[in-house]
Design goal:
Elements lengths: L2 H8 L3 E6 L7 H7 L5 E6 L5 E4 L4 H7 L3 E4 L6 H11 L6 E4 L6 H10 L3 E4 L1 H8 L4 H23 L7 H14 L3 E2 L4 E4 L18 E7 L1 E3 L2 E2 L2 E7 L4 H19 L7 H11 L12 E3 L6 E5 L12 E4 L2 E4 L3 E4 L2 E6 L2 E4 L11
Parallel strand pairs: 1-5, 3-4, 5-6
Antiparallel strand pairs: 1-2, 2-3, 7-10, 8-9, 9-12, 10-11, 13-14, 15-18, 16-17, 18-19
Helix pairs in contact: 7-8, 9-10
Length: 354
């Protein structure tokens, strides 16, 4: 399914994707045009797509965009100019498609002053389209994962040189910048009892003995990597080693049993079963798709209706979190290609003791 088919099936005359904030770009605009920046992508149902950008962005847009680029006239509001362009191109708009989650209320109200057609939300259709990756997207995601591996392995090798959780977090951030990339999300660095909270925020406190969970990923060319490794600071007890071994074997088994067409919820259920008495301490989904956003389809949740398909890229991240005691998580980014899985994140998963 592509965007033109969505417009045909839903009888939508044009789809519109806009970016007005230099700090946030519409992911669908980038996906469909190749351009990240201020402007508006117009996708007519029966005519070629085009991009309207301000003069200051015109040269960059011409370089990056896969579709025709037009400058909107100085002194004119964007949607006023859009209305003029649509009239000249004889594109009548009875029904307009937008992604409501990516368009704020002020922009929507401004748009409705100039484009009077009925509005249909195509946010879910866009997410559905993006769940299947192209060869080029998979290549970019592979590079993002490779760089994530490189930085995290460097961090783990130096872990004893860091005094606080914040120092670890800052190291990951600085190394990401050195690679010319951005963080995919704020890293999770959780030591000791803090590791029992899946979304723990690193603090300016000494690294505590026990399990240390590091959840980290970089964003490369707009695409997100995601990986978690758990190491141990100090000397683990036999019971702690046993629990970690259970989690690692569970993750390996669940990945091995993922097949083309299998329901995602089935893999989640198998994970809980394999964890046995520790299944009740697995408190989040098994994983999620990754791409232009850190959380995309498929969803590996208990109530998920998604199934594994070719060219999906997703995470598998079981965890065990015993409140007030300890926590651990092992996460890899994975691609399904021609019915077979390829793990994109390569950092060793055997328990490292520091």
């Amino acid at each position: 399914m592509n965007i033109k088919k969505v417009l045909q099936e839903k009888k939508i005359d044009i789809a519109l994707f806009c970016t007005f904030d230099s700090d946030y770009y519409d992911k669908n605009q980038y996906y469909l045009s190749g351009y990240r920046g201020m402007g508006c992508l117009v996708v007519p149902r029966n005519k070629p797509s085009f991009l309207l950008v301000p003069e200051m962005e015109y040269e960059r847009a011409k370089q990056d965009s896969k579709v025709r680029v037009m400058k909107w006239k100085k002194g004119k509001r964007l949607f006023d100019f859009l209305k003029e362009v649509l009239r000249k191109r004889r594109i009548r708009v009875k029904t307009l498609g937008i992604s409501r989650v990516d368009m704020n209320l002020a922009v929507y109200r401004s748009l409705k002053k100039y484009i009077k057609g009925r509005v249909k939300d195509i946010a879910l259709d866009c997410v559905r389209i993006r769940r299947i990756k192209s060869k080029e997207e998979i290549k970019i995601l592979g590079k993002a994962c490779s760089l994530t591996d490189k930085i995290l392995q460097k961090c783990i090798s130096r872990i004893r040189t860091f005094k606080t959780e914040k120092e670890v977090e800052q190291f990951l951030h600085v190394e990401t910048i050195k690679q010319g990339c951005e963080l995919a999300f704020k890293p999770i660095v959780a030591s000791g009892k803090g590791a029992s909270m899946p979304h723990y925020e690193a603090k300016n406190i000494s690294l505590r003995k026990g399990f240390l969970v590091i959840d980290f990923g970089i964003k490369y060319k707009g695409y997100h990597a995601d990986m978690t490794r758990t190491i141990y600071l100090g000397k683990p007890s036999q019971q702690e080693k046993k629990v970690y071994s259970l989690l690692l074997e569970t993750q390996k088994k669940v990945i091995m049993d993922i097949k083309l067409g299998k329901r995602c919820t089935k893999s989640f259920e198998e994970t809980v079963s394999l964890l046995g008495t520790y299944g009740k301490y697995f408190t989040h989904g098994l994983g999620h798709g990754i791409g232009l956003q850190i959380h995309e389809w498929p969803n590996l949740l208990p109530a998920s209706k998604d199934s594994f398909e070719n060219n999906m890229v997703f995470t598998v991240e079981p965890g065990i979190y015993v409140p007030g005691k300890f926590g651990m998580r092992i996460e890899d980014s994975i691609v399904m290609e021609k019915g077979r899985l390829r793990i994109l994140t390569k950092t060793p998963k055997k328990l490292i003791v520091k």
